[in-house]
Amino acid sequence: MSERRSALVTGAAGGIGRATTARLQDDGIDVLAVDLRPDPAGPGIPYEADLTDPEANRAAVAAALERFGRLDIVVAGAGIQHVSPIQEFPLERWDTILALMLTSPFLLARHAWPALTAADSGRFIAIASVHGLVASPFKAAYVSAKHGLLGLVKTLALEGADVGICATAVCPGYVRTPLVEAQIGDQARAHGMSEDEVLEQVILAPHAVKELIEPAEVAEVVAFLAGPGGRSFTGVPVTMDLGWTAR
């Protein structure tokens, strides 16, 4: 078994996942970088997986264990978005979002649990969102998945307490990622606004500080939680929302 700690990061080809993979590597952690379309030139060891498929989650954990001989950290960060009024929200999009953003973290935890238990200090870190704590219109599936993810993390924290596993949810506000940038057009159509108006009046409106969070800032929080200083953070949302929930 390798002496180096190892991690599995999902959604690793871009945004928060890519930044997290690079940041964990900076700490000397081996990372399996899991994505539907992995970037072979990106940080970590690329691994292709469609995590809406239950079997792919088992296989990803198995691949990390085969490659590294151990698994100390799981960072569940894969996500997608769909913006639509409830009466027009497609069932197919609901099912896909829940499969990727709630069922996949559950399956990753389920399959990784023995390895995390065997680790010196196992960590399960979910990239949730401030939308795990509050809601916005036209995002029924995303908000429901993120709220459910916080419930999963709380349950894992209680089950992991006696075996040395900490489970935590990182809850950022809007981050400068392709996921956020891609939804501006959808938001413009849903709200009947221009894209510039959406950025100012929808995207940044809830933030007390009118800025986007950078992926590297979220990655720093994940690295802290994965390290010795994160030992006491379990069963909780770690909120970094530029004042959103202070209102």
Can you tag this structure with a few keywords?
seven-stranded parallel beta sheet; single chain; alpha/beta; 15% strand; globular; 247 residues; 7 helices; 7 strands
Low-confidence stretches: none
Count of β-strands: 7
**Beta-strand content bin:** 15-25%
Q: Give the % helix.
A: 40-55%
How would you describe the oligomerization state of the chains in this entry? single chain
The order of strands across the largest sheet is 3-2-1-4-5-6-7
Gap between N and C termini:
49 Å
Q: Globular, elongated, flat, extended or rod-shaped: what is the shape?
A: globular
Radius of gyration: 17 Å
Short recap of the structure:
With 247 residues, the protein is of the alpha/beta class. Helix content is 45%, strand content 15%.
Overview of the structural elements:
The protein has helices spanning 15-26, 54-68, 91-118, 140-160, 178-191, 195-203, 215-226, and strands at 6-10, 30-35, 45-48, 73-76, 122-127, 165-172, 236-240. With 247 residues, it is an alpha/beta fold. The chain has a 7-stranded parallel beta sheet with strand order 3-2-1-4-5-6-7, with helices on both faces. It is globular. The N and C termini lie far apart (49 Å).
How do the strands and helices of this protein lay out in sequence?
Layout: E1 6-10, H1 15-26, E2 30-35, E3 45-48, H2 54-68, E4 73-76, H3 91-118, E5 122-127, H4 140-160, E6 165-172, H5 178-191, H6 195-203, H7 215-226, E7 236-240
Parallel strand pairs: 1-2, 1-4, 2-3, 4-5, 5-6, 6-7
